[in-house]
Amino acid sequence: MNEYEQGLSNQKDKFEKDLSKSKNSGINKAPFYAMKAMPSLSYTPGGIFIDANMKVLSIENNQPIKNLYAIGEATGGVHGASRLTSCSIPDCMTSGLLCAKNIISEKLI
Question: Alpha-carbon distance 56 to 88, whole Å?
Answer without folding.
Answer: 19
